[in-house]
Specification:
The protein has 461 residues and is mostly helical. The chain is built from 17 helices and four strands. The chain folds into two domains: 366 residues, Fumarase C, Chain A, domain 2 (Up-down Bundle); 56 residues, Fumarase/aspartase (C-terminal domain) (Ribonucleotide Reductase Protein R1, domain 1, Orthogonal Bundle).
């Protein structure tokens, strides 16, 4: 058996940094295996209830478990003709049975029942991979946040230095995002691992009067959540989990953009891991480009484009789609692979990130210490009132820039002309407010999330 020749060109980003484990979840062989598991569970339920002969049900289960029961080349050839793969799958499974056991595969089901239940299995496996990627990123951020809770650096707003903060407080914000993403991922799990078995129009008529019982047994057999309402045309759960994916990828991208910005030559506060020719230029020997960060951004942007398509795919009319479902076939695997890839790279980025505290300290003085302007204003406010203090420090800041001197110098001279005011010594290391507590709170919340909501899947061996 062979996998069909890819109909798309080279995806260079995925080739270099794609998450192989997530790609395997949505591989052709795993997809077909999921469909076979659903057909086997259906036969098991019907045999258990006496709807079909138990021996026949057991034979169907055995054929479904046999890797050699499906000729993939023939399956894809049939699917190209039919437009869907399940008719060909059923015909091959039935033909693989002994003559006396034929005629009961897929009894009462419809193509989308099998494919959506198979998708539910894949989505549960995909969420398990994403949870591990989020956990790896969260653990790496928690360690770096705790390590640098008091490492003072410039906080920046609108791209400019604003007030002092710490690297730990900055990273703590990202850690809080990851904490929320993990919580959201666990919350949406049951929405997407729901069995689908309602027949052609969603009424379960072909399944007979024991349709609900069949569905319950199939769900139990597959480890899925039972359903009482059809979701062939209702794709809100897909949109929901897609939003969780995109949110996670976006946080990874935001972190990557921050690393890219802070590693600029004129800032140099952090850098990606170094190594022989890592991030090298073909023509500029000095370059060491932030290749992980760049690739994370690429994956995240790609994930967001998939979300747009999946939102459109949810606009299904009547009881079954007319083209919208096919959008999912392409975009769901792409979304999950892009998201997992971004998160895996982000975790490695954080684990290997080089931090340069000396450069952070030097940059606090890059603009003549004007980063301490708010601190100076707050120190003067009790004596002058906030507005007058703001105007005074504003004028001093402009003077410092004009004369290319420090804020401390012009402030000290100005205070000498105002002897009724107390002396003020500006020190960025004492002006970080609750930064260290913010870092500690983020780490504590992450650890609490892991302890309170343990992973519901078994870790791979």
């Amino acid at each position: 058996m062979t996998t069909p020749m890819p109909a798309r060109g080279l995806d260079l980003l995925a080739e270099l940094y794609g998450d192989r484990e997530m790609a395997a979840v949505f591989s052709a062989s795993n997809t077909i295996d999921g469909w076979k598991k659903v057909e086997a569970a259906l036969a098991h339920a019907q045999g258990r209830l006496g709807i079909i002969d138990p021996e026949r049900a057991a034979a169907i289960e055995q054929v479904c478990a046999d890797p050699a029961s499906i000729d993939e080349d023939a399956l894809w050839e049939s699917a190209r003709n039919v437009g869907y793969p399940i008719l060909g799958l059923v015909r091959q499974l039935d033909a693989a049975l002994a003559p006396q056991h034929r005629g009961s595969v897929h009894l009462g089901a419809t193509t989308q029942d099998i494919m959506d239940s198979g998708l539910a299995l894949q989505l549960d496996a995909a969420l398990a991979v994403l949870e591990r990627r989020l956990r790896s990123l969260g653990d790496a951020l928690a360690a770096l946040t705790a390590e640098h809770a008091e490492t003072v650096m410039a906080g920046r707003t609108h791209g400019q230095q604003a007030v002092p903060t710490t690297l730990g407080a900055k990273l703590g914000v990202y850690l809080a995002e990851v904490t929320r993403h993990r919580s959201r991922l666990l919350e949406c799990r049951d929405d997407v691992r729901r069995v689908s078995l309602f027949g052609a129009g969603g009424t379960s008529d072909a399944l007979g009067d024991r349709a609900a019982k069949i569905r319950t047994i199939v769900a139990e057999r597959l480890g899925l959540v039972d359903a009482t309402v059809p979701w062939h045309a209702s794709r809100d759960a897909i949109v929901h989990v897609a939003a969780v994916c995109v949110g996670s990828a976006t946080s990874a991208s935001r972190l990557a953009r921050e690393v890219t910005d802070l590693s600029r030559t004129e800032i140099g506060e952090v850098t990606e891991a170094v190594g022989h020719h890592r991030g090298a230029s073909s023509t500029m020997p000095q370059k060491s480009n932030p290749i992980f960060s760049e690739s994370i951004i690429g994956f995240a942007v790609s994930a967001r484009t998939a979300f747009t398509g999946l939102s459109r795919a949810a606009e299904v009319g009547h009881e079954r789609s007319a083209g919208e479902w096919q959008i999912e076939w392409s975009l769901i695997p792409a979304l999950f692979v892009d998201t997992a890839s971004a998160l895996a790279l982000a975790a490695e980025l954080v684990e290997t990130l080089a931090v340069h505290p000396d450069r952070m300290r030097a940059n606090l003085d890059a603009d003549g210490g004007l980063i301490m302007s708010e601190s100076a204003m707050i120190a003067l406010a009790p004596h002058l009132g906030r507005e007058e203090a703001h105007d005074a420090v504003y004028a001093l800041a402009q003077q410092a820039r004009r004369e290319c001197v420090t804020l401390q110098q012009v402030l000290t001279a100005w205070l000498a002309d105002h002897p009724h005011l107390p002396s003020i010594e500006l020190d960025a290391t004492t002006a970080t407010g609750d930064a260290s507590q913010i870092a500690a709170a983020a780490v504590g919340a992450w650890r609490s999330e892991l302890a309170t909501h343990p992973r519901p899947w078994k870790d791979p061996a």
